[in-house]
Amino acid sequence: MIKLVDVRKQYKAGEDIIEILHGVSLEVKEGELVAIMGPSGSGKSTIMNIIGLLDWKFSGDYYLGDKKIAGLYDAELASIRNREIGFVFQSFFLLPNFTAAQNVALPLIYAGVSANERKERALAALNKIGMQHLADRRPHEMSGGQQQRVAIARSLIADPKVVLADEPTGALDSKTSQEIMDLIKALNKNDKKTIIIVTHDLKVGKQCDRIIFVKDGDITDKLEEF
Amino acid sequence: MTFGVYVSQMLENLFNAKMRSFLAVLGIMVGTASVVALVSGGELATLNALVQFEQLGTNLLSVGVQSADQGATQAVGTQVEVKDLETVKRKVATVKYVAGYTNLYQPISYAGNSIDGSIVGATESLAQILRIKMHTGRFVSNLDKDADYCVLGKNVAASVKQDGGGDLLGRQISVGSNIFTVIGVMQKAAQNPFMSSDLNDAIIVPLQSSLYLSKYAQIRNLIFRIQKNSNIAMAQKNITKVLNAVTSGKRFFFRSSQQILKSMDSQHRTFTWMLGFIGSISLLVGGIGVMNIMLVSVTERRREIGIRRAIGARSIDIQYMFILESIGLTMFGGFVGVLVGVLASYVIAVFAGWSFHIFPLPPIIGFLVSVLTGIFFGFYPAFKASKLNPIDALRSD
Q1: Which of residues 49-78 of B touch A (CB under 8 A)?
Q2: Cα–Cα distance between A23 and A218 in angstroms, integer?
Q3: What is the pLDDT of residues A63-116, one digit of tens each?
Q4: Containing domain of residue B36, as a range?
Q5: Cβ(B209)–Cβ(B121) below 8 Å
Q6: Measured between beta carbons, which residues in chain B are less than 8 angstroms from residue A55?
Q7: What is the three-class DSSP state of A10?
Q8: Is the pLDDT of residue B161 over 90?
Q9: DSSP per residue over B19-60, as a string?
C-alpha cells in the first residue's frame, strides 16, 4: 500500500545543508495498523508528512498504492490527500467556527459533493461513531475526546484507504486515549483501513500490528527507551 | 468545488469575523460614498447650470466690439450707434432680435445712501432676448428715448427697499449727477454668460440716456437672437459684413450659445473628474484597509489554511477563498456606499438649491470600482495565503 525506498530529506539552514532523513525505506501493507515511534527530532513527523503528501520535496521513491508519487502538480497532490488519505492530528485541528457536522463535511467540499449529500454523509459518519447528538456543537463545546472523534469522522468521510494519525492520543488522558485507540483499532479491523500512527506512547504502539522505530533519520530495529 | 460553495463559505467566514468585516466594509463604504457623492454633485452642478442656460434658448449670439488697434484711444474709428442695430436687423434676415447695450459705472444712491450696482443702457429688445420678467412696472421701451427712467435689478431693488419699503415705482434714484425715476423692478434674472454684468445688480436705463450719462459710454456689446434652425456661422458672417460697413476700425468677437455650452460642458467635465479623483483617494485608502484586514485574517487563519490544505484544498482554492472574502467585503461596502453617496448628493442638492436627479453612472462606476478594489487589494493577501506551506501552516498557533 505504502512503500518508501531510500527516501532522503534535506533542508538548508543558512549555509549548511542538514539531512533529516538518511535514506529511509519502509513498507506498509494494505489493512495494516502500524505505529511509527521515535524520539523528538528523529524524523518520524517528516516521514509522516511525506507519506501524507504534505511534504513533496524529497529524494527517493514513494509509492502510494500503485502510484509513484513524483513530479505531481499541487492540484493532483490535493486530490490524493482529499480522496485517498485521512488525517488525524494531536490537537484535533477542527475549524473553531464550524459545527461538528460542518467540520466532518469539510473534505467533501473539496471533492465537489453537493450540499445535501455532504450533510447526509457527515451525519452518517457521526452516527457511526456514536456522535450524532453532537452534530451541531462547535469544537469549544466538546471535550477533547469528543473533538478527536469528530476529527476521526472527518478523516474517514471521503472513504480513504489510508489514515495517518499524528499523536492522536497525545492531548488526551489515559482513559480517553484508550477509547480513541479502540476506535482506531475497530476502523482497522472492521473497515480494513490502513492506519499509520505516529506516537511517543509505547502503550499505543504495542496495540498496533507492528512498530517502526526511527532514530536520527534512520529506521532501526532496536527498541530503545524514549 | 462549485462557485456556490465558495460564496457560502465566504459569507460564513465573514460572518464569523463580524467586527473585522465591519471595519473593512466601513473604509470601502466611505470611499465609495465619497466617489458617488462628489461625482453626482458635480453632475448636478453641471445639469443645473445647463438648465439655467438653456432656458435662454440656444440660438443666442453675442458680439463684443473692440478697437482693432489695441493701443488706440476711444476717439479712433466709428462706434456702433443705435441706428446701426436697426440696420443689422433689416439687412440680415436670420436675425430675430438684436440688442446693443452699454455698461458703465457711476455712483448710484437713493435718499442719500449709496447703492452697489452698475448701469446698463439697453433697449426693449434686451428683455425679449434674455426673457427678462418684470416684478412690477415695465422694462425700458424704445419710446423712452433718452428719458430719465430706470429699471431696477432684483438686488438693487432690495437695497433700495431697505431704506424705505413699499412700492418702488416712481421713486427717484440718483445716478452720477442725474436723477432717474423708477419705472419697473425685474424679477431675479437667470445667470447668463452673454452679459458682461449681472442684471440683478444693475440699474437699466434707456440706451440713449446712457450715452448721454458719460462721454465714455459706447455700445460695446450686442446680443442677437437668431431665427430657429438657421445657420449660425452664416449669420455671423452676414452680421460682420453689415457691422463693418457701418463702423470703422473695429473688430468683432462672436460667442454663440453652442460655443458657450461646449466650454461650460468641458469645464464641468474637468471639475467632475477632479471631484472623482478626490473621491478615489478615499476609496484607495479604503482598499488599503481591506488589504490590511485581509493580511491580518490570513495570519490569524494560518492553521485553518493548513487544515484545509491537508484535507484536500488546492492552493488555488485557498486563493479563491480569500479573494472572494475580499470581494464580498468590498461589494457590501460598495453597495452601502452607493446608497449613502446618492443620499449625500441629495443633501448637497437641497442645500445648493438645485433640482435633484439620480445619475445612473456614478453609482454603477462607484460600485464596480469598489469591487475591483476588492480584487486588487485582496489579491496579494490571498496569494500569500495560497503559497503557505501546509506543514508550516499546520504548525502555527
Answers
A1: none
A2: 7
A3: 998 889 988 999 999 999 999 999 999 999 999 888 999 999 999 999 999 989
A4: 3-53+263-395
A5: yes
A6: 391
A7: strand
A8: no
A9: HHHHHHHHHHHHHHHHHHHHHHHHHHHHHHHHHHHHTT-S-E
Count contacts between A and B (CB, < 8 Å): 64
Q: How far is B363 from chain A (nearest CA, A)?
A: 35
Non-local CB neighbours of A97 within 8 Å, separated by 6+ positions: A138, B12, B13, B16
B197 CB-near residues (< 8 Å, 6+ apart): B103, B118, B120
> Could you tell me if B240 and B278 lie in one domain?
no
Asked whether the beta carbons of B28 and B290 are under 8 A apart, the reply is yes
Q: Are residues B270 and B243 part of one domain?
A: no
The vertex-A52 CA angle with A196 and A211, nearest 5°, equals 25
Position B76 pLDDT exceeds 60: no
Domain count, chain B: 2
* Other beta carbons less than 10 A from residue A176's beta carbon: 17
pLDDT in tens, B252-292: 888 888 888 888 888 888 988 898 898 889 889 999 999 99
Q: A28 forms bridges with which residues in the sheet?
A: A2
Q: Which of A74, A75, A107 sits opposite B311 (nearest CB)?
A: A107
Q: Which of B2, B4, B311 sits opposite A82 (nearest CB)?
A: B311
In a shared domain, residues B105 and B225:
yes
Tens digit of each residue's pLDDT (9 = 90 or more) over A109-161:
999 999 899 999 999 999 998 899 999 999 999 999 999 999 999 999 999 99
Examine residue B304 and state whether it is found in any structural domain, yes or no: yes
Q: How far apart are CA B322 and CA B299, in angstroms?
A: 12
B305/chain A closest Cα distance in angstroms: 10
Distance separating alpha carbons of residues B92 and B244, to the nearest angstrom = 13
Q: Hey, is B183 helix, strand or coil?
A: strand
Please report, rounded to a whole number, the percentage of residues in chain B having pLDDT higher than 90: 38
* CB-based contact, B128 to chain A, within 8 Å: no
Q: Which residues contact A106 (CB under 8 A, 6 or more apart)?
A: A95, A98, A154, B307, B308, B311
Give Cα B310 to chain centroid, integer Å: 60
Mark whether B190 and B315 lie in a shared domain: no
Query: With a cut of 0.90, is the ipTM above it?
Result: yes
Across chain B, what does the average pLDDT equal?
Answer: 87
Residue pair B289/B23 in contact by the 8 Å Cβ criterion = yes
Whether the CB of A54 is below 8 Å from some CB of chain B: the reply is yes
What is the structure's pLDDT at A37? 93
Closest by Cβ to A95, choosing from B304, B317, B390: B304
**Residue A6, by phi and psi: left (phi above 0), alpha (psi -120 to 50) or beta?**
left
Binary contact (A109, B394; C-beta < 8 A): no
| Residues A11/A18, Cβ–Cβ less than 8 Å | yes
Could A54 and B310 be called an inter-chain contact, meaning their C-beta atoms sit closer than 8 Å? yes
Of B56, B49, B194, B50, the C-alpha closest to B133 is B56
Does residue B58 surpass a pLDDT of 60?
yes
- The minimum CA-CA distance between B309 and chain A, rounded to whole Å, is 7
Please provide the CATH number assigned to the domain covering A2-95+158-220. 3.40.50.300
Identity of the residue numbered B290: V
- The pLDDT score that the predictor gives to residue A174 is 92
